[in-house]
Amino acid sequence: MSESRQRIWAPVLILVALVILWETLVTAFNIQQFLLPKPSAILGNLAQVVVHGGTASTGESAAELSLGNRFFVVLPGGLTPEIEENLQNARWVEFPFGARSVSVVRGSNLTPILAASWFTLKEALGGMAMGTLAGVAVALATTRWTASREALLPFAIAANSMPIIAFAPIMNNWFGIDNPFSKMAIVTVMIFFPIMINTLRGLISVDSRSLELMRSYAASDTEILFKLRIPNALPSLFSGLKVAGALAMIGAIVGEYFGGPRIALGVFITQEAALFRFASAWAAIIVACLIGITIYLVILLAERLALPWHPTFRA
Amino acid sequence: MTEPVVVLENVDKIFGEGAADQVHALKEINLQIEQNDFISLIGPSGCGKSTLLRVVGDLIQPSSGGAVINGKSARQARLDQDYGIVFQAATLYDWRTVAKNVQLPLELMQFSRSEKDRRTQAMLELVELTDFAAHYPWQLSGGMQQRVAIARALSFEPSILLMDEPFGALDEMTRERLNLELLNIWRKTDTTVLFVTHSITEAVFLSTRVIVMSARPGRITADIAIDLPQPRNSETRSNVRFFELETEVRNALRISEGGQAASRAPA
User: Fold this and answer.
1) Interface test with B, best of A215, A216, A226 (most B CBs within 10 A)
2) Total tally of structural domains belonging to chain B
3) B223 to chain A, closest Cα gap in Å
4) How large is the ipTM?
5) Could you name the CATH architecture of A111-313?
6) Which residues of B touch chain A, with CB atoms under 8 Å apart?
7) Rounded Cα gap, residues B140 and A310, in angstroms
8) Which of A34, A82, A180, B4 has a Cα at 20 to 30 A from A197?
């Protein structure tokens, strides 16, 4: 019990210490915020602080409600792209017809960042699903028909060597910049190899005694596949999935750097950086990291549920 | 007299035949095993004991010569599921519980559900692991794992039990206990056993016949009938005849090894 607590608290303490060190160093050396914003600035960017609540009637301008140019008006339904644009360009907003209740908030980016993250996460998960299916299918095929292994492996290695930076614009051309499928295709290509090679290793590296045992029972190839090779491959498939989970978010964001809808996380980061809003860009990067960690933890949990027999989970 | 269970005629096995580093593993092996025999194969390391076991079990094809098992080819005997096999490593499937491991051959041989459960239950009782049915292999000691492997090999009542140094990795106490258990099981079932071992004591204690093999190329150099009374038990080990037979096997090994055994054989 105390050991598992230590496992949680040790990294948390290190994180807190690092953030404090970061904040202190940036302040002490007076580092420009475009080089490295303070953690407090980044977190402040995500915190949605309600400064003033009130009601407004149609046609009333935000300027009348706002307490200065650093305060924006956000409607209860959250930011629409039009309002977001107004917020960036002007100090005041015209309330759409029929709006009644408003809150005046300090320019928070939590809502757009979460919306963009959700969009990009869907791309990453779609690509993961396709890449995993393709990787497992090729691994199974090359196990079943050994001859196809020599024929297919060079292509798999070629796919793995493909520079993703060069590949991303091509996929954007093929499927259209705003089509999420273009980013899913990039993720698929990125994760195919780790999934395929890990699964293949698990399917092939079966203990020779276990195989002899199956042969002595006169088991067919199909029975050997389902009762021996596939269960034997599951732990390495999960190793592959853990690598793929991190790559998936990276792949989707890199794809978006070469163009995508305004709502995408990669596009958001590029734009914020271009507009010198570095705290906001950093906030988005941190959310992307948190999503990557979450994907990893979900895979870890799935692994525990799927492989209760595995010796690494000894109680 | 019933026909022999195993008949080997002039079996030769050469690995990598024709290559510069070819290995002549077995040479002119002639062997007959009768029903209910308990045969131990003993010999220096690398003498082809395990190879011989695999030739009988159709896991390796002989280079020349023939094997007739229960009046059939070894291949047909394998397809008819005449063999139960136990290796030095228990070779349990990590993802299956103890009960599921014992059931593996029954699943493959399409036994009915009730028959599977009945036999699994009976086998676990036989090896005294009923309480561990739901455990995974890593939760068991080496000796317990090996008992599961034996239960698995016996679950479908094979006519021949092939055992390749099954207790080689266990400590002396566990090994002696499992020797007794194995003899119990052997008496209760109708099985013929072919048992590979390094241990002279184990071979003499368990067997009805001990086959001594020479260093590579492996040939049979002695065939010693063990005429100790049945059933054997812990008192068998203090029988004078037991020591005489041990000495006989040791001498046969020494001759077959050309003097090397003098330093290697246990005192």
Assistant:
1) A216
2) 1
3) 27
4) 0.83
5) Orthogonal Bundle (1.10)
6) 54, 57, 59, 78-81, 83-85, 87, 89, 91, 93-97, 104-105, 107-109, 136, 138, 162
7) 14
8) A180
Backbone dihedral angles phi then psi of residue B28, each to the nearest 5 degrees: 45, 55
Asked whether residue A74 carries a pLDDT value surpassing 70, the answer given is no
pLDDT score for A237: 94
Q: In whole angstroms, what is the distance from residue A283 CA to residue A265 CA? A: 11
Lowest mean pLDDT among A83-92, A116-125, A127-136: A83-92
CB nearest A212 (choices: B59, B104, B105): B59
Rg of chain B (C-alpha set): 19
Burial of B125 (0-12, 13-18, 19+ CB in 10 A): exposed
- Residues in B closer than 8 angstroms to A226, CB to CB, are none
β-sheet bridge partners, residue B11: B29
Domain with residue B25: its CATH number is 3.40.50
Q: For residue B107, list chain A residues with Cβ-Cβ distance below 8 A.
A: 227
A259/chain B closest Cα distance in angstroms? 46
Which chain B residue lies closest to A230 (C-alpha atoms)? B95
Count of CB atoms within 10 A of residue A110's CB? 15
- Fill in the amino acid letter for B55: V
Residue B249 forms part of a structural domain: yes
- For A164, A262, B6, B38, the CA distances from B161, given in Å and listed in that order, are 57, 71, 12, 9
Whether B192 is in a domain gets the answer no
Domain with CATH 1.10.3720.10 in chain A: 111-313
**Which of A209, A217, A232 lies closest to B81 in CB terms?**
A217
User: Digits of tens for pLDDT over chain B (267 positions)?
Assistant: 578 888 888 888 888 877 788 888 888 888 888 888 999 999 888 788 888 889 888 888 888 888 888 888 888 888 888 888 899 888 999 999 999 999 999 999 888 899 999 999 988 988 888 999 999 998 898 888 988 998 898 888 888 999 998 888 778 888 888 888 888 888 887 789 999 998 898 899 899 999 998 887 888 888 888 888 888 888 888 888 888 888 888 888 888 766 444 444 444
User: Smallest CA–CA separation between A236 and chain B, in Å?
Assistant: 14
CB of A172 within 8 A of CB of A123?
no
Instruction: Give how far B247 is from chain A: nearest CA, Å.
Output: 34
- The answer to whether residue B51 is domain-embedded is yes
Contacts of B87 in chain A (CB under 8 A): 209, 212-213
